[in-house]
Amino acid sequence: MPKTTGQSMTEPTFALLIDGDNIRSSLYPEILKAASHKRLLSVRRVYGNAATANGWLQEAHLRFIHSGTGKNATDLLICIEALDLILGGAVTGIVLATGDGDFCHLAHYLRERRMPFHCIGTENLSQRLRKAAQNYTILPSETPIPAPAHLLPNPHAEMWRALHELIRENDGKIPLNRVNPLMRARIPGLKISETGKSWPQWIEAQNGRFILCGTAQDRYVRAAP
Predict the structure, then answer these.
(1) How far apart are CA 97 and CA 99, in angstroms?
(2) Distance separating alpha carbons of residues 32 and 16, to the nearest angstrom
(3) How far apart are CA 27 and CA 37, in angstroms?
(4) pLDDT truncated to tens, each residue of the chain (225 aa)?
(5) How are strands ordered across the β-sheet holding 40-48?
(6) What angle do CA 175, 108, 87 make, to 5 degrees?
(7) HSE of 24 in the Cβ direction (CA atoms, 13 Å)?
(8) Residue 19 near residue 78 (C-beta atoms within 8 A)
(9) N- to C-terminal Cα distance for the chain?
(10) DSSP string, 51-69
(11) Which of 17, 97, 168, 222 has the fewest beta carbons closer than 10 A?
(12) Distance of CA 208 to the CA centre of its chain
């Protein structure tokens, strides 16, 4: 009898969905390695705003889907397409790469229906999503370039570290109006006025370490992808 090669009709298949707003494209090799371990990836997509795509438009192995510029537009589109793929029978499980915590409802929905849901993220991945996912993978940190020995320590380093920790502890983002009280509780004696800037000005001046999102009363800060 002739030997048949290729995908088995009964072999479980997975969709790799990447939150391009919260994950850098330079991490794609590690994402693919973690996602494809003992899994057949029949769908590979990345979602985000094409104007700020973090390098994802150059990844030929992925289908880039523009999500627009609205608040939470990327998160909503990922959830809709994940459910469409699962309920339509195109795949049997979801692998999501993100640094956000807004996918807990999706994780709970899939778990209740015994559908595999694996999450991949950086160390900024929220604790809530780690607990909600069936399992998760934390990607290795990119090796930082050491500063020359003659340079003095950056006076903002303690603030960077504290804000990163707070963002991680608060599901990946903090309302802008909560930054000051939370930071002052974390660093006693801290006064943002001593930097000569307001919190929005200071955040935007930190060489892309943090990102301000939303408008008016809905503004929030998250770590850069």
Answers:
(1) 7
(2) 8
(3) 16
(4) 444 344 445 678 999 999 998 888 999 999 999 999 888 999 999 999 888 877 898 888 899 999 988 778 899 999 999 999 999 999 999 999 998 767 999 999 999 999 999 999 988 888 889 999 999 999 987 555 454 544 445 668 889 888 988 998 888 889 999 999 999 988 888 888 888 889 999 998 888 889 888 877 788 898 887
(5) 63-66, 40-48, 13-19, 93-97, 117-121, 135-138
(6) 115
(7) 14
(8) yes
(9) 52
(10) GG-TTGGG-TTSEEEE--S
(11) 168
(12) 16
Please state, in angstroms and rounded to a whole number, the distance separating the CA atoms of residues 125 and 104: 12
Sketch out the chain's domains with CATH numbers: 13-138 (3.40.50.1010), 157-223 (3.30.420)
Q: Tokens for 97?
A: 């790469």
SS3 73: helix
Can you tell me the distance from the alpha carbon of 54 to that of 48, in angstroms, rounded to the nearest whole number?
9
| E strands in the chain | 13-19, 40-48, 63-66, 93-97, 117-121, 135-138, 174-175, 210-213, 220-223
- What single-letter DSSP state applies at residue 138? E
> Rounded to a whole number, what is the largest CA-CA distance in the chain?
80
Token duo for residue 155 = 């006076």
Locate tokens 């607990």: which residue? Answer: 131
User: Which residues does 185 contact at the CB level (< 8 Å), separation at least 6?
Assistant: none
Q: Which two tokens stand for residue 68?
A: 């627009």
* Owner of token pair 């370039």: 145
